[in-house]
Specification:
65% of the residues lie in helices and 4% in strands. Among the domains are: 179 residues, no CATH class; 106 residues, no CATH class. It starts with a helix and ends with a helix. It holds the Pfam family CFAP54_N. This is CFA54 protein. InterPro entries: CFAP54 (IPR027912).
């Protein structure tokens, strides 16, 4: 930063003003491309803007007239206006990335407010540029930046705060004539989908459906114009319209699958399908499946609709629990969605119509389900406690994952194995199944409960042989040691995701917390207490939890992890004093 500062100070008086400003912006763009956002912000973009505005830059961002008079004194048609628009937009993007670099999860109110200020500033810049057709590139880039920031905030639970900005981005795409072409339709449909999702997140599903239907109307209007005259090939054009229509249809299905059941006066509670017996029943088998078939063609589209209809952004992977809505029909629809998804994963929905050997592909196609979507489905089944679906889907997906060599799929395989290990910890004594996994070139075997009558002996090198079936530490120790092995022995790009590692550690902590606090309270009698109550294993698990936190760099993701570390430190001090 100091070197760059010295360069600008040294060469500014020696260079023509236009050339200096051009270099200033280009260096900033280069720094932003290599993700040196703070340097680009302070030493390039803000340095450029400060030549025109002597006051705090943020002070002129709340009023359109002050904004125009400060940055565009000669009007937006001036030859330097395009560069000014670019710098203003790039500055906002850099501010956002600087905030994310120090507070990615936006835990501090100041970070969230800065992101909202960035969105407001981007909107203001686009508002001034919108009447100029030759600045359509700025509008398009602005919608991308707004969408990127808003999606981040939506994941963090701030959908209500970003809805207005996504609506603005959508309207901008419709208001700029060059951006109304079919070439930009896919992106416009993505923005429509984000707006609808925002409404769903805000518990305003009816508005989400209305906006999706409005999107369908806009898409149909463009299609009618394109049918008259189009520069694109027929096949390419049809594909673009089909994908855009699919996105809108999925958002409509997201509400319709539940609302149609609520409104039906002739609703009869259909018996829940057993996934292992459903193979003999013809597809479509339920009301939900019939709606899927009516609205979507192909397994990929139907599976996408199922995934979008299931997720609840307020739901974490743990603690797992079935839906608890006000209407009795909702859990029934949820179960039918899972059953339909499992039928598609098994390939039965297509095999009954044509021969199909493999339902999985790396990327989604007309009649294939992507590997990413299948993995997401298994995780959702775990979260909703749809255990029959979870284990049946796990078998299909695991066979696919084991045949892949890419580290991404190995990571997904490990995450699903950790879920199967978590299940008996979350709901002990309910299930048991066996599986094997590879670690350091050695094959290891383990088993997961799947019904107390089918309990099997565990054979796993990651678990002490002294832990017998029925031992209260057995499942906890298997989960802890296997997770520790995953973050210790595999390559970094194969490690399970931080989200699932956080869930594993929190699950272990909740199960061990009470016993560990009792050990901690025993003070100088710590060793005596552990010997009397055979509590050494609790401390061992605590140590493993701490090692997982340290090796996976998740210490800053949850304040509870500090409590785990402090508990271990206190117990070790008590042991030293005993």
């Amino acid at each position: 930063a100091n070197t760059l500062f010295d360069i600008w100070i040294k060469y500014k008086p020696r260079l023509p003003e236009w050339y200096y400003n051009e270099r200033l912006v280009k260096v900033g763009d280069t720094l932003a491309q290599i993700k040196e956002y703070k340097l680009a912000l302070q030493q390039c973009y803000e340095r450029y803007l400060q030549q025109f505005v002597s006051v705090n830059l943020d002070d002129v961002m709340d009023d359109v007239q002050r904004f125009k008079s400060a940055f565009f004194p000669n009007g937006v048609r001036d030859k330097n206006a395009a560069v000014m628009f670019h710098v203003l937009q790039a500055r906002n993007v850099c501010i956002y990335h600087v905030v994310c670099s120090r507070d990615r999860n936006l835990r501090h109110g100041e970070s969230l407010q800065t992101c909202l200020n960035v969105l407001t500033s981007l909107r203001l810049t686009m508002q001034v540029a919108l009447p100029q057709e030759d600045l359509c590139w700025l509008i398009y880039n602005g919608t991308i930046h707004i969408y990127t920031i808003c999606r981040h905030l939506m994941v963090m639970g701030h959908s209500a705060k970003v809805l207005e900005y996504l609506l603005w981005a959508s309207i901008c795409m419709e208001s700029s004539i060059p951006l109304l072409s079919v070439h930009y339709l896919t992106w416009r449909a993505t923005l429509y989908t984000a707006v609808s999702q925002c409404y769903f997140d805000c518990q305003a599903s009816i508005h989400g459906e209305i906006f999706a239907r409005r999107g369908l109307i806009k898409i149909d209007e463009l299609k009618q114009l394109e049918d008259i005259s189009s520069s694109l090939g027929h096949t390419e054009r049809e594909k673009i319209f089909r994908e855009a229509t699919l996105k809108m249809s999925v958002m409509i299905f997201k509400r319709a699958v539940y609302e149609s059941r609520k409104k039906s006066n002739s609703f009869r509670r259909e018996s829940k399908l057993n996934p292992r017996k459903a193979v003999n029943v013809s597809w479509p088998r339920t009301t939900t499946e019939r709606l899927l078939v009516a609205m979507f063609d192909g397994a990929a589209a139907q599976f996408l609709a199922i995934l979008e209809a299931l997720p609840d952004r307020s739901r974490n992977l743990l603690p797992s629990h079935p839906p608890v809505p006000d209407e009795v029909q909702i859990p029934e629809v949820t179960s039918e969605l899972f059953s339909a998804g499992l039928e598609i994963l098994s390939g039965n929905s297509l095999k009954k119509q044509k021969q199909l050997e493999n339902i999985f592909v790396i990327t989604a196609g007309e009649e294939r389900v992507s590997g990413d979507a299948a993995v997401k489905f298994v995780k959702l089944a775990f979260s909703y406690e749809e255990w029959n679906v979870f284990y049946s889907a796990f078998e299909f997906v695991d066979h696919f994952l084991q045949a892949q060599d890419d580290p991404t799929w190995k990571k997904a395989e490990l995450e699903l194995k950790l879920l199967t290990l978590m299940q008996p910890v979350v709901l002990p004594g309910r299930f048991e199944r066996s599986f094997s996994f590879s670690e350091g070139g050695k094959s290891k075997e383990g088993s997961i409960r799947r019904g107390s009558e089918k309990t099997k002996t565990i054979r796993s090198e990651c678990c002490s042989e002294s832990l017998k079936p029925g031992d209260p530490f057995r499942d906890l120790m298997i989960l802890a040691k296997t997770t520790f092995s995953c973050v210790s022995t595999f390559e970094q790009n194969v490690h399970p995701g931080k989200e699932i590692l956080v869930d594993v550690v929190m699950c272990l902590w909740q199960k061990c917390k009470t016993e560990l606090q009792q050990i901690q309270k025993s003070g100088s009698h710590c060793l005596e207490y552990m010997h009397k109550h055979q509590a050494y294993q609790w401390v061992h698990i605590l140590w493993i939890m701490n090692e997982i936190i340290e090796k996976s760099n998740i210490a800053d993701t949850n304040v509870m992890f500090a409590e785990i570390t402090l508990c271990l430190a206190a117990i070790l001090e008590n042991v030293a004093d005993s």
